Every structure is written in structure tokens, then in C-alpha cells.
Amino acid sequence: MTTQSMPSKAEASVYYDSGWPELVRLLRLLLRPEEQVHTSLSSFSHEELYRIIYQICWLGFRERLYQELVRFFETTLDEQDAQLKSIADPAVWLQSFGTLCVNHLRAVDIIGDLFAYLDKAYVRYTLQKDLKDVLTHVVQERLVATSEELIFATFKLVVANVLPVDEGWMRTVAEALLKMNPDSIFLNPTLFQELIPRLQDLPNIAEIRARHTQLETMYELQQIKSTAGTDMSRAENGLKRDATEAACEGESDAKRTAA
Fold first, then answer.
1. What pLDDT was estimated at residue 70?
2. 8-state DSSP, 121
3. Is 141 exposed, middle or buried (0-12, 13-18, 19+ CB in 10 A)?
């Protein structure tokens, strides 16, 4: 299809339906670092993909393309968030979480460049937003914010040298978190300052540490409530079990008496 003549709506729809899966193939690879071990990003023709994006926008599907792109991001990150929550080992969790954070920021940069025409023609012009900012926000909300308590706990283990990690890798993860949200430093000011020299002389460090203490208190209270709730549930189950056993014994006694 060329841009010399406007196709019919049916033809345009067919083009979109054939072009979008090609974009999904790259998006899926970009957001799944484990698959990049077997498939190189260089195996895709960025020139061809850019042409597909341009044609889709020219055909009038800018809004649809934007919505499907964001939806794909959200769905993928929701799946990854659920997978992270199933990991019990703190070391494995931190490695998995950190890898995703670093990978996804790189993916946002690549996607922002590849979808530059969509960004210019729709996201900036119509929505008054920046595509990279939108996608970064999705990563922050769907992956980082939902894991805040686990980040807090694992970073505490790292500072205490209970959880050994490579310092260079940890610094990369910390930089990624700060890029997504500067407030990430509140999760563990000590760790961020140890890893990133420019943070060592912050004028508001007292305020930052005070907020960190507030977060620590909040999570400790949540843990106490959770433990208390579990103990209460066990006690209630025990009472129910005792009541059931007593009722059964009563029925047995009544039957024996009747006999």
C-alpha cells in the first residue's frame, strides 16, 4: 500500500490488522528480556516497522494504535507483576524485578523512537503528552508501585549485607528507579546514596530520611496487622473445629442413649 491514494475503510482496516501483529512481535520481545537470549532485536527491520506505523497513522488509526500500544504495555506488566508476586526467595525476586526495571526503561526508549510519528502526530499534538513519559508511567504504576513493600524489604536486606548483590548491577537498578520516579530514594536513602555519588550531598536528606522512617513504620504496622489477622483466623478455625467436634460427639451420645 502506498500513500498516493486513500484506500477504502475496508482496505485500511485490513492493513491495520496485518500490521499490528508485526509490531506486537517486537513489543513482546522488548518487554520480555528472557526471550532476548534466543532472539536478537537486530533481527527486526526498524525501517519496515516505522513504515508500518507511519501508514497506520496516515490511514487514520492514530488513536487506536496508541490505545493498543498502551494496553499491550499494561497487560504485559500486569502479568509480570503477578509472576513476581509468586516468587518467595528475596534474592530471586530482586534479580527478576531489577532486570525488568532496567529492561523496560531501555524498551521505552526504543519504542519511543520507533513510534516517533505516532508521538508527534497524536500523543503530543492531540493528547499534549509525551509517549515515552506515558509508557514510563505505566511501568512505574504497574510494576514498581505495586512492589513498593517488597522493594523496601529487599533493599533493607541489601544494606544489612544479608542479601549479597553485585554493586554495579544494583547501581543500574537504582538509577532506573530514580529515572522512573525521583521519589524512589525514599525507599532506602542509605542504599541510594551509597550507590549514586551525586545523591550524597542532598540538602533535603533529613526530610528524605524522615519520610523513609514513616514508610518503615507503616510497613511494620501492616505486618503486625497481617500477623494478627492470621493468628485470629487460626483461632477462629480452631473454635469452629472444636464446635463441630463437640456437635458430632453430642449427636453420637444422643444416638447411643436412644439405642
1. 98
2. I
3. middle
Residues 118, 51 contacting (CB under 8 angstroms): no
* Locus of grid cell 475496508: 10
Average pLDDT score over the chain: 88
| Chain segment 18-35, per-residue pLDDT in tens | 999 999 999 999 999 999
Sign of CA dihedral 85, 88, 94, 99: negative
Q: Is 166 helix (H, G, I), strand (E, B) or coil?
A: coil
| Helix (H), strand (E) at residue 76 | helix 62-85
Distances (CA, A) of 226 to 177, 185, 220: 28, 26, 10
pLDDT the model gives residue 193: 94
Q: Read off the amino acid at residue 178.
A: L
| Cβ pair 185, 192 in contact under 8 A | yes
Residue 198, C-alpha cell as written in the block: 551525586
Q: Hunting for cell 524485578 — which residue is that? A: 97
CB 101 within 8 A of CB 155: no
Q: Which tens digit of pLDDT belongs to each residue from 190-207?
A: 999 999 999 988 888 888
In Å, how far from its chain's centre is CA 142?
4
Q: How far apart are CA 189 and CA 206, in angstroms?
A: 10
pLDDT one-digit tens code per residue, 58-91: 999 999 999 999 999 999 999 999 999 999 999 9
How is residue 200 annotated by DSSP?
Answer: T
- Helix or strand run (H / E) with residue 153: helix 148-159
Reference 71, options 114, 23, 33, 113; nearest CA is 23
Here the cell at position 120 is 508527534
